[in-house]
Amino acid sequence: MDIVLKKIKISELVAGYQDKAEEGVRGYGGRLNIRPAYQREFIYKEKQRDEVIHTVRKKYPLNTMYWVKAGDGFELMDGQQRTVSICQYVQGDFSVKIDGADMFFHNLTADKQKQILEYDLSVYVCEGTDSEKLDWFKIINIAGVKLTDQELRNAIYTGTWLADAKRWFSKNSPPAVQDGRDKLVNGAPNRQEVLETALDWFSGGEIEGYMSKHQHDKDAQELWQYWQAVFDWVKRVFPNQDSARAKLMKGLPWGVFYNEHKDDKLNAATLEQRIVTLIDDDEVDNKKGIYEYLLTGKEKTLSLRAFDEKTKVKIYGKQKGICPTCKKHYVIGEMEADHIVPWSKGGKTVSDNCQMLCKMDNRTKSGK
Ligand SMILES: [Zn+2]
Known about the structure:
Blueprint: E1 2-9, H1 10-14, E2 18-20, E3 24-27, E4 32-33, H2 46-57, E5 65-70, E6 73-78, H3 80-91, E7 96-98, E8 101-103, H4 110-117, E9 120-127, H5 130-143, H6 149-156, H7 160-169, H8 193-203, H9 207-214, H10 221-237, H11 243-249, H12 254-261, H13 268-280, H14 290-296, H15 309-318, E10 335-339, E11 354-358, H16 359-364
Parallel strand pairs: 4-6, 5-9
Antiparallel strand pairs: 1-9, 2-3, 3-4, 5-6, 7-8, 10-11
The structure holds zinc ion (ZN).
């Protein structure tokens, strides 16, 4: 990783400054992309903006900015607000109060203008491999704008694949969260969290590996088609997605379920009956776990009700500390409460159905 500290004069920075909303913001003779795709919109704060200009006028140092080499030019990684403030002021977009008077750049005397234009900005210019840049972005992110993990990845793996992926997965209300999918998915599309979810599921958690491999693909159709297939499958297997159900279904790892169970023989009507029963079952604490339980059969996803301390002490006393399986005596801390008739066979969490087993026998029983 190569990081070089450069001095850039304000006159160089503002040369060719252009702000064309959709097409982007450029400076430094057109070679600096001031708002690359991963940067969020410049948040206009008048007081901070004016502070930047006063700092420059007083020849105080501004915090070092970060540029990253990209193609023939640079992308601004950190310092968007300072950069835009300076460029807008010199361009004449706003005035600042100087000695009580509103002064635009063109109101300043020639020597004051010159002083601003010759002010040296400190810029770290960074060049390196993609993974080096990503590590570095993560570090400077701590001090600068807070980017999400996926915004950081997008900063590295820009290209045709990402541009197409964003059409489907980012901005406000993209296709990815339409057709009722918004009821099932968590995360803000415009912060790239839906894209992250899709990538996570599709790549099996290897998001960066996937993005680097496909960076220059002509489009992201593969990912988009996968996403649609996941939710088509969910709709087929769990068609009841009314608002009460959607509350249980929202944010579940549907892609992971799809990856592992898409070829299972599943009957929607049977599943629906079991869901109704499980929702009604007071023994089931974690209703959101119902879907995973139905697919995997793992009872732990349901957080089944456990015996309380009072019941445990009572049963321990009744058994006089003897484990009914191995007939040995234990102190209470060496024992665990067990359902005599398990939940799966209709057993409830009531003291009549409780026995205290030694830890060894409890864990051996039914392969806990
Ligand atoms: Zn025992």
